[in-house]
Amino acid sequence: MATVLIVDDEPALREGLAETIADLGHEPVLAASGREALARLAANPDIAAVLLDLRMPGDLDGIAVLKRIRDRPRAPPAVVLTAYASAENTIEAMRLGAFDHLTKPVGREELRALLGRMLSLRAPGEAAPAAPAAAAETCLVGSSEAMRRVQKAIGLAADSDATVLLQGETGTGKEVVARALHDHGRRWSAPFVPVNCAAIPAELLESELFGHVKGAFTGAAADRPGAFREAQGGTLFLDEIGDMPPAMQAKILRAIQDKVVTPVGGRPVAVEMRVVAATHRDLPALVASGGFRQDLYYRLNVIPIVLPPLRERLADILPLAEHFLALGAGGGGVPRRLTPQAAARLLRYDWPGNVRELRNIIERAAVLVRGEVIDAADLDLPGFDRPGGPAPEDWLSGDLPTAVARLEKAMIARALQESSGNRAQAAKRLGIQRQLLYAKIERYGLADRGGGTSERTTPGVGKDDT
């Protein structure tokens, strides 16, 4: 049995968590505010885990309490719970040492598993330096499970010096993630220097990265520091590194390993910065074919972060569209909104160009539409609709619970279709327990639409998926 501190200003939620924790065999200790939570911790050194609400009244919200907890010697692991998850509070909570950042409500089995992980590890607390709020251009809009994994990874890696490799399709926002890693980390006040390795001719790339001295070659009229030295103390972002010429790969490897660069025509210079690389290419396949150095791949792939394509982030499409509309209004344009038909059209589209394509579509509509309403006919989308999508005329009709249920049903039907009816794989795609998926299949009448029992064996289980 362990003692678990529950911090929440809402009595019903506090008592509900306490009842569940007691049923799981642990002793709950309750606090209704941040100050009361700190007092409980000071009075009870046996507290082994903390469940911490994010939004609380007074001058101590969840993030402030988390900082105080992490300042304590032998700080217990703390999970931040919120009904208002955002990229910023997810990243900040993970950066400050939260064990996890979860959205309410938390189910009984999820809470059992969570406490099991928390109680198996009690890491000493260490306060992290404060970071500035993320700039608007580095805002990672999205609350889908896929994006929350990315946001948590950013929070965990932000203060590290380890090299990060961002992988994902073109347009998924790799530079946005790189900037978020920089802005939320301890190097935020130093330069962030992006270099597109695919856009610079091979004969100029060495000078662009390492610099040159005056007279080193024809046209070198003055000294140039190069991107490595320009990023001194900050972050160097090497975009599309998979397109880097082989001859440069060896020089980049040496520069990253030794933290020394040699300007063209000059002498070696020591440098200190963090390297974040990105590519849309399959680097392991390139390594296997000899198109990319294996040693450089392993040097870059210290912390891998995979960005999901937009078609796998259905819940993020409309928030992203509204975000881009708001950015346009912020520039002096007329505030605009999407009709339900336009929203349905966006949700049906397959987005081969990902977030970049969505932004272009929304900006184009905002410029070309004179009124305040953007309809489906105003969206210049080619015919890449997602199969099995909802009908435009009824997608957002009715009340909020009805619309949410409609979305849930569509996502479950799609997951079952893509997994050929294998419920275990469908549950994994959706990020839910199989038992919950079974209940929802029955609720939405999907048993005869690819939701029947699969005869295939689920990998890693070794028995039929029944």
UniProtKB/TrEMBL annotation:
It holds the Pfam family AAA_lid_14. Residues 140-367 form the Sigma-54 factor interaction domain. The keyword Coiled coil does not apply. Residues 3-119 form the Response regulatory domain. Residues 447-466 are annotated as: Disordered. GO terms for molecular function: ATP binding; sequence-specific DNA binding. The modification 4-aspartylphosphate is found at D53. PROSITE patterns: RESPONSE_REGULATORY (PS50110), SIGMA54_INTERACT_1 (PS00675), SIGMA54_INTERACT_2 (PS00676), SIGMA54_INTERACT_3 (PS00688), SIGMA54_INTERACT_4 (PS50045). Keywords: Activator, ATP-binding, DNA-binding, Nucleotide-binding, Phosphoprotein, Transcription, Transcription regulation, Two-component regulatory system. The keyword ATP-binding applies. GO terms for biological process: phosphorelay signal transduction system; regulation of DNA-templated transcription. It comes from the Bacteria. This is Two component, sigma54 specific, transcriptional regulator, Fis family. It comes from Methylobacterium nodulans (strain LMG 21967 / CNCM I-2342 / ORS 2060).
